[in-house]
Each structure stands twice: as C-alpha cells, then as structure tokens.
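FAQ: What does a ligand-bound record look like?

Like this one, built around manganese (III) ion:
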Amino acid sequence: MKYRLFLVAALIFAASFPDFSIAQAVKVKPAKSPAAKKADPVKSDTPATESKTTINKAPVLLPAVKTGISFWSSASSALPFPELPYEYGALEPVIDKLTVEIHYDRHHRAYYNNFMKAIADTKMASMPITEIFANIAEFPVAVRNNGGGFYNHVLYWENMSPKGGGEPTGELAEMIKKYFGSFSAFTEKFNEAAKSRFGSGWAWLSYDPLNGELFVSSTANQDNPLMQVAERKGIPLLALDVWEHAYYLKYQNKRADYVTEFWKMVNWPEVDKRLKAAVGR
Ligand code: MN3
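The answer part, i.e. the structure of the complex:
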C-alpha cells in the first residue's frame, strides 16, 4: 500500500527532474523529525581533493537508510543533522566512547555545517543530495568533500549497532553468497578494500542497479559510490570509515585491527533494509 504512495511520489519527483533515471524510484520511509543541534563549527580535517572529473552521467540513486529516502530526496538545504542512533559509549569496546563522540559531534557535524555553507544561495540548495552527487564534477570541491562527509557518516552510524555482529540472513545472505561465494569470502574482500585504501577513505558494499550485482569497492576522502566520479557506481549498503579519526585513539596505526573488529558491530537488519529498498522490494 505505502509502496504505491512511494511510486507516485517518485514519479512526480522524476517528472520534475527529467534528467533523472527511474532507478531512483525506490522506497520512501518517513523522515525522522529534525533534530539538528547548533554547534560551533569545528575545523574539519577534510583535505583538498584532487579533482578527477570523469564526466559520466550516472543515474541518480536514492539509498535507503533509517533517515529514509524522503529524507535524502528533500532539498539539501532542508536536511537536518541526524541524531546518533545510540549513546557515545554504546559501541565499546570495539569503538571507544571518546572516538564516537569526537567523530560524530565534531567531524561529522563539521561536514554537515560546511556542506550547508557551501550550498547556501546556490542552485544546489534546492537539489536532493543524490542529484548533487550524480553531478558532483560540476560543483566546488568543498561540496564533494563535505556533502560526502555528511552523507557517508549517516550511513556509517546507522549500519552499526550495539546489538550488531554475526552474519546476515535471508536475501542479503543469499546475494552475498551468490556474488562473493561465501560470507567469509565477502568479508575478506571488504577487509582488503578497507585496508588497502591508501590514506583516508571508505570501504563499501553496494548494489549495482544496472545488473543487480553486489560489489565491494573503496573510495578516497569523502567520495562515495553515488558520485559521478566513482570508479564503480551503485547504491551503498554498508559503509566503513577508514579515516584515522575513526580509529586512531584506540587502534593507533593498526587499521587492520579496527577493520576486523568492525564486523562485531555491523547492523545486518539495517543493511538488509537498504538492499530491499535498493532492489525495489
Ligand atoms: Mn569519519
């Protein structure tokens, strides 16, 4: 029933933006109430990104997260800063309380604040963030870095849970087996992507709507698979932040240990929800 509503909304949305692919017509959930808190902008550790501008018109892909597709499909300037879905110390001992607090309340919030500043009074203010990502080569690098930083961390926080860990079940488990051979082969591939990303960046499990495959990739800085500049584009299902700020206090230079421990926190039901929304079921 609600899917019919989603479809209508998606069609209206698509009609408003004729350049969009209907691939965006994925499920919409109600957005959480805005909970943006004011905070002093904190200096971000976002580096200048070397702008590799491969012009390739990607379909606009709307990912599904708890914050909902209606959340991401609204005008970017109207997006609130989502609340952390648990307490700062909830991921201990895998990720320590101070790291989560600094990471969420300073780094993530700074990306959000800087993104809002970068799009203010521009045509981007009224564009959904996914549309900005799909055309990212046209926009200033501050939008790429801070918009990516804002979006990526929302997925990261939501794809972890104090009750996380174990293995996925159902369709997600079946697709992982189909495309990677086994769950352990998948985690090995993902770990390798996370560990071998030179410098700062992200590791991803994504769904490719063009052929229905799952794939693992990594991106530099705050790029993500929704961006026009991504080597392989898809709908992000699982995100792992491998910037040093995500793990350094506890793990220091041992990124591999952080990556290994991450699996204990993965919120598989959330990842499964993203898959279902991406596939369109
Ligand atoms: Mn981070």
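Follow-up question: can I read anything off the structure? Yes, for example: Residues 97-119 form the longest helix (23 residues).
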